[in-house]
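Section 5: illustrative case.
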C-alpha cells in the first residue's frame, strides 16, 4: 500500500460518521488532493466552537461562506459578522467557473450552484433590520464591564439601576442613564443620599465621560427600542433551510468599543434566553465573528473575563462560536482552548515575529505522520487549509491538509438593486425599523425636576407676597406717641389750658 492509499484509509477511518455532517473538502498528501478522502465535520460537535485563521488573501472568508451554506442546507441558522462587506452574495447562486469545476473534480464532489435565505441586519443607519438593545437589558454588571469602571464606579452604576427599579423609571437609551447620573448628584442628591448613601460627583463625572466616549463610537444608535429578539435569528425558511443572518458592519471597523459592546450584549442575551440543550444532534445557532481581534485587542481584563466565561458556558445552549482572524495568537489562550474545530489557512513568514507565531500555531495541532505541520503552514495554497475537528465522541480527528470545496453561492457582494430586494422582502424590517421613543427615565426625571422647580417658584412667590404684606402692615400702623399727640382729647385739653393762660 503506497502513501496515498495509506492516507486515504487513515482519513476514511478518522472521519467515519454515523450522524449528520457537513463536508469541507478532500484531504491532501504530498501537495496532491486525494479524491473522495472527504473531511467531514459532525453537526453534533459544531457547538464546541471553532477557529478560522490565516494570512490575508488565503481564503478565510470563502471557508466561512462554505460552512455557513452547508449549515443552512442542514437546517441550522447562522449569524455572520460582515466587516468587509463581501458576504451578501450568499443570497445568489454562484455563476460557476472552470476552476471551480476543476477543484470539485479533484475533490470528488459534485458542484451545484445555490442561493440561500438571507436576512440583512444593521447596527448603524445602513439599510437592513436594525439591531437595538435597552440599557436595562444590559444590566449594571455588563454595562460596567463595557465602560471599564472601577469597583467604586460599578457600585454607583448598580445604585442607579436600583433607583430606577424602585421608582419605575425605564432605562432605555444612554440619555436615560446620563440623566439619572446627573440627577443623583444634582436635584436628587438628598433623595439619593437618604435611601442609597452619598454618591461622589467626581465618580459620576468619570462615568459620564466614559458614556460619552461610547456614544462617539455610535452606541447611541444601538441603545434604545425596539429591542431585537434573539429568537428571530433561528428562523427556518419554507424549504427547511436555516436563515443566514448577515450583520453589515463595514462602517464600524474603527469602532471596536461599539463592536465589542454589541457582541457581548448579543452573547449575554442568547445565553439568558435559550434553554439548556445538553447533548444534541445539531446546534441551534452558529455565530461567525469575523476580524475577531477587534473584540479582544482593546478589551479590558474585566471584559475579557466576561467573554471567556460566556464562551465556556454558551455551548450548553446549543450555540457554536467561530472566530475568524489572521493569527490564532489574536485569540486569548483561555478562549483558544475551548475551540473544537480549527481551520488553519496559510501563514506567511516575513519576519522573526512571524516565524515565532508559526511555531506557536503548529503546536496547537495534533501530530501527524503525513505532515511536518510547521513546514506545511507556509506552503498551503489559496483555498487550502489544515483542519482538525472533533468526532462524534468528542475526540480530535486526524489532522488533514485539505482542498476546500468552493462556495455554492456567489463569491461577491449583491448589487444595490439585489440588496433592496432582499431587505424589501423581510418581515423583520417592519418589526424593528420603527423607532420608538416612549416615556422613560429622561422624560420622567425632567418632568419631576420641572414640577419641583415650579413648586419652589410657587413657594418663593408666597414668601415674597407675605413679606410685602407684612411690610405694608408695619408702615401703616401709627406710632403710639404720635397717636396720643394727635388725638382729639389731647388737643381739646391743650386748647383749654391755653385759654386759661390767655385770660
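Designed sequence:
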Amino acid at each position: 500500500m503506497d502513501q496515498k492509499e495509506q492516507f486515504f484509509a487513515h482519513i476514511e477511518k478518522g472521519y467515519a460518521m454515523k450522524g449528520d455532517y457537513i463536508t469541507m473538502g478532500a484531504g491532501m498528501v504530498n501537495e496532491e488532493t486525494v479524491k473522495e478522502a472527504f473531511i467531514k465535520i459532525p453537526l453534533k460537535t459544531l457547538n464546541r466552537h471553532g477557529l478560522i485563521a490565516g494570512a490575508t488573501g488565503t481564503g478565510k472568508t470563502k471557508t466561512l461562506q462554505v460552512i455557513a451554506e452547508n449549515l443552512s442546507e442542514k437546517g441550522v441558522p447562522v449569524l455572520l459578522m460582515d466587516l468587509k462587506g463581501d458576504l451578501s452574495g450568499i443570497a445568489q447562486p454562484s455563476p460557476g467557473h472552470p476552476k471551480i469545476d476543476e477543484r470539485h473534480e479533484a475533490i470528488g464532489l459534485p458542484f451545484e450552484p445555490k442561493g440561500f435565505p438571507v436576512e440583512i441586519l444593521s447596527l448603524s443607519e445602513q439599510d437592513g433590520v436594525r439591531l437595538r438593545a435597552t440599557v436595562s437589558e444590559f444590566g449594571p454588571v455588563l454595562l460596567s464591564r463595557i465602560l471599564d469602571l472601577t469597583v467604586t464606579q460599578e457600585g454607583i452604576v448598580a445604585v442607579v439601576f436600583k433607583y430606577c427599579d424602585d421608582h419605575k423609571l425605564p432605562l432605555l437609551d444612554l440619555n436615560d442613564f446620563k440623566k439619572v447620573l446627573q440627577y443623583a448628584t444634582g436635584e436628587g442628591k438628598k433623595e439619593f443620599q437618604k435611601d442609597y448613601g452619598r454618591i461622589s460627583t467626581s465618580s459620576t463625572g468619570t462615568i459620564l465621560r466614559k458614556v460619552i466616549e461610547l456614544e462617539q463610537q455610535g452606541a447611541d444608535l444601538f441603545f434604545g427600542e425596539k429591542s431585537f429578539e434573539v429568537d428571530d435569528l433561528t428562523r427556518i425558511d419554507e424549504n427547511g433551510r436555516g436563515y443566514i443572518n448577515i450583520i453589515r458592519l463595514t462602517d464600524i471597523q474603527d469602532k471596536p468599543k461599539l463592536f465589542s459592546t454589541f457582541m457581548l450584549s448579543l452573547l449575554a442575551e442568547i445565553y439568558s434566553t435559550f434553554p439548556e440543550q445538553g447533548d444534541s444532534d445539531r446546534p441551534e445557532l452558529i455565530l461567525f465573528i469575523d476580524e475577531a481581534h477587534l473584540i479582544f485587542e482593546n478589551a479590558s481584563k474585566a471584559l475579557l473575563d466576561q467573554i471567556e466565561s460566556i464562551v465556556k458556558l454558551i455551548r450548553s445552549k446549543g450555540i457554536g462560536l467561530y472566530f475568524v482572524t489572521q493569527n490564532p495568537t489574536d485569540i486569548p489562550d483561555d478562549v483558544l482552548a475551548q475551540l473544537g474545530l480549527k481551520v488553519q489557512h496559510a501563514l506567511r513568514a516575513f519576519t522573526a515575529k512571524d516565524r515565532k507565531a508559526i511555531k506557536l500555531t503548529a503546536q496547537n495541532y495534533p501530530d501527524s505522520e503525513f505532515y511536518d505541520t510547521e513546514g506545511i503552514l507556509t506552503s498551503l495554497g489559496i483555498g487550502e487549509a489544515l483542519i482538525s475537528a472533533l468526532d462524534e465522541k468528542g475526540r480530535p480527528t486526524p489532522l488533514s491538509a485539505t482542498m476546500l470545496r468552493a462556495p455554492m453561492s456567489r463569491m461577491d457582494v449583491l448589487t444595490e438593486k439585489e440588496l433592496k430586494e432582499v431587505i424589501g422582502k423581510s418581515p423583520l424590517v417592519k418589526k424593528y425599523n420603527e423607532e420608538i421613543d416612549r416615556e422613560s427615565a429622561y422624560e420622567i426625571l425632567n418632568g419631576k425636576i420641572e414640577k419641583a422647580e415650579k413648586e419652589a417658584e410657587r413657594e418663593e412667590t408666597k414668601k415674597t407676597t407675605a413679606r410685602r404684606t407684612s411690610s405694608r402692615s408695619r408702615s401703616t400702623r401709627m406710632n403710639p406717641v404720635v397717636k396720643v399727640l394727635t388725638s382729639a382729647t389731647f388737643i381739646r385739653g391743650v386748647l383749654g389750658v391755653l385759654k386759661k393762660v390767655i385770660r
